[in-house]
Amino acid sequence: MNEKPIFIGMNGNGRMNGKLNVNHHGHNGSEEQISEIGDMHVATSIDTPLRKDAFDLSDTEKVALIEEKFRDILKILGMDLTDDSLRGTPQRVAKMYVKEIFYGLNPANKPAISVFDNKFKYGEMLVEKEIQVQSFCEHHFLPIVGRAHVGYVSNGVVIGLSKINRIVDYFARRPQVQERLTVQIANDLKKALNTDDIAVVIDAKHMCVSCRGIQDDHSSTVTAEYSGKFKDRATREEFLKYIRL
Ligand SMILES: [Zn+2]
């Protein structure tokens, strides 16, 4: 198997310019295609694929429906839901999906971003590193856990540091693909800070790689999005020196 080294770079449009180093065996039948798309972790778009009616149901209605469906899944697996330990599981999972681990699907939950004038006229690069990333692979619904490193050069405004953590968390808390997560964070910061001079690097472990499939618990996946000044080699190297990756 030749599936380990995954280093993907993207250009400003979010197009991949790196290569996914994976086996290319034939597409024989849809089941194989489905598992191949999952194993390759291929993203199809920068926007999270959501339907137009995604938020017609209230959170309460969603929790009730997911609880019912998850109970069915456990039943199909043969679990005895009259057992005290399992009785509350469908409701716990449903609440966790809607209120916690996928709260970032709903634009109503987007953190309010306030920016401030760059009063000190700080003109150098600002780097916030080691930001916790807790996300979920949309191909297997298993955790993606890692760190994000963000750099920007102020174009007259600055952002509260904890807001960067909140932006990372908001985009992470949805079924995700790491490349898409990287670009979504970068695009949002570009808008908030009114600048193209943004770098986002994410280094994360995918439980779907460690717990199933190839079962490699050592590899991690690095994705990067550089735009504006970070496209210059010297600026990018300065950023990478700070995050020491
Ligand atoms: Zn996966």
Structural commentary:
The structure is a single chain. With 245 residues, this protein is an alpha+beta fold. It folds into 2 domains: 1-51 and 115-245, GTP Cyclohydrolase I, domain 2 (2-Layer Sandwich); 59-105, GTP cyclohydrolase I, N-terminal domain (GTP Cyclohydrolase I, Chain A, domain 1). 36% of the residues lie in helices and 22% in strands. It has helices spanning 30-40, 59-76, 84-87, 89-101, 161-172, 178-193, 207-210, 233-243, and strands at residues 6-10, 19-20, 115-117, 125-137, 143-153, 157-159, 175-176, 198-206, 221-226. The strands form 2 sheets. It has a 7-stranded mixed beta sheet with strand order 2-1-9-8-5-4-7. Strands 3-6 form a two-stranded antiparallel ribbon. The model is unreliable at 1-28 (pLDDT under 50).
Order of strands, widest sheet:
2-1-9-8-5-4-7
Please work out how many helical segments DSSP would assign. Answer: 8
**Amino-to-carboxy terminus distance:** 26 Å
Poorly predicted spans: 1-28
Whole-number count of domains: 2
CATH class of the largest domain: Alpha Beta
Assign a percent range to the helix content: 25-40%
Shape: globular
CATH architectural grouping of the largest domain: 2-Layer Sandwich
Bound molecule types: zinc ion
CATH level-3 fold name of the largest domain: GTP Cyclohydrolase I, domain 2
Biggest pleated-sheet summary: 7 strands, mixed
CATH superfamily of the largest domain: GTP cyclohydrolase I, C-terminal domain/NADPH-dependent 7-cyano-7-deazaguanine reductase, N-terminal domain
The beta-strand count equals: 9
What proportion strand? 15-25%
Overall mean confidence score, pLDDT: 87
Helix/sheet category = alpha+beta
SSE succession: EEHHHHEEEEHEHEHEH
Radius of gyration: 20 Å
